Amino acid sequence: MLDLGIQELIVIFIVALIVFGPKRLPELGRTLGKGIAELKKSLSGFKEQMNSEIHESDNFLSLEDKLHKTDRPHEDKSRQTASIGESSATPDENKG
């Protein structure tokens, strides 16, 4: 994620100490920590919900495929009988 080393963290700490002062720095750290924890919790919940939705859609698609596979033999038989009935009639019989 962020590749921060010891030197960068020291510089950030010194700048924060100068900007916010020693009295507000612990309060700022707690607030920042709570904010990051809340963000991680929200992202985890969002990821869990997305995985759940994907799993439900996969189940729906597999159920839909199963339904189509069971329906197709009936459709194929009706198509076969219709094509047999049409092919047995001569062109003259179809006109009149």
Summarize the structure.
The chain is mainly α and 96 residues long. Helices cover 92% and strands 0% of the residues.
Textual characterization of the structure:
By secondary structure, this protein is mainly α. It has 2 helices and no strands. The longest helix has 83 residues, at 6-88. The radius of gyration is 34 Å and the shape is rod-shaped. The termini are far apart. The mean pLDDT is 77.
What distinguishing features does this structure have?
single chain, 96 residues, mainly alpha, 92% helix, 0% strand, rod-shaped
- What is the alpha-carbon Rg in Å? 34 Å
The count of DSSP E runs of length 2 or more, i.e. the number of strands, is: 0
Mean pLDDT: 77
- Unreliable sequence segments: none
Largest sheet: none
State the distance separating the first and last CA atoms: 79 Å
Structural class: mainly alpha
**Element pattern in H and E:** HH
- Helices, by number, come to 2
* Assembly level: single chain
Helix content: over 70%
* Percent of sequence in beta strands: under 5%
From the spread of the alpha carbons, the general shape counts as rod-shaped
